[in-house]
Please model this.
Amino acid sequence: MSTTTETAYCLICEHENPGDAVLCSHCYAPMTLIHDAISQNREPCIISVIGESNVGKTVYLGLLLDMLSKRAGDFEAVPKGAYSVNLQQTVISHLQNRKFPPKTPSETDRWHWAYYQVARMGRGTQWFDLVMPDMAGETLAAEVESPQTHIVIQSLLEKTAGCMVLIDAAAAAMGSSQPDLFGLKLMTYLDQNFASSPDEKVYNPVAVVLCKADYCPQCFDDPRVFAETNLNRVWNMCQSRFAGVEFFAASVIGTLGFGSDDEGNIIPIPLHTTPRGILEPFEWILSHLE
Ligand SMILES: Nc1nc2c(ncn2[C@@H]2O[C@H](COP(=O)(O)OP(=O)(O)OP(=O)(O)O)[C@@H](O)[C@H]2O)c(=O)[nH]1
Ligand SMILES: [Mg+2]
Ligand SMILES: [Zn+2]
Model:
């Protein structure tokens, strides 16, 4: 990580860019990340939130950042740069208007990135510099199918310290095999990126977050049992290849209504936001990075 007045190296892919570049010309990550990292004088720690399109990544990440900045769970969180607040602002303002935020654009240069300085207050406070992008599920799916087509995802995972894999528990509980099969692809992709050799297990902490658990409350009782029963392929892969993995149930919705959009399609309406299980996966990952 270094910079001069003329050039700067991208924090994510290390490509050399002009000093005044806004986005990296190679991977489209914001160049302000590197300037913020240098001023912080601490190696940033990347936590990636991955999952298929429509699983709830944007809603989850927006709510998590908002809870952190409201000091939930004794955390203190300081956003670096106003750009870091955009994601939580979009999510919270939509939910307040009883709408879900729009789908994340597949173009990497339009993603929101958040750079937060986070610590758990108490004895021996340790600060983490966290970089978290809100990726689009479709772009991630394209990269998983043909690795190395999206440099930003590849580079991010190479540098990722801990990862949250979001899986649609509601769809799995209704008997769909899609969440399990796509989850298995993601775990395979992580295995290839994280494991140092085929004989070594993956040691990066991986939190499997079972989303939309409001549709299947049994998920909260025992997320492990739920995963073993309804996501058996993912469960087996985790047992075989991942040394540090844990399962969590999460939901942002207390009361859900239904309405129709302009084209007459039935859409869910978040009548009441009640975050459940949002902080736990994050706390667990941080405790494994200390
Ligand atoms: N019932 C329920 N529905 C949810 C919850 N979180 C998300 N959803 C639904 O899932 C949809 C997709 O959520 P997003 O956060 O936009 O999904 P995403 O993973 O970011 O999708 P892409 O941006 O396409 O990758 C929302 O529009 C809601 O309809 C939840 O906790 N409970
Ligand atoms: Mg999204
Ligand atoms: Zn780059």
Observations:
- Residues 178-194 form the longest helix (17 residues).
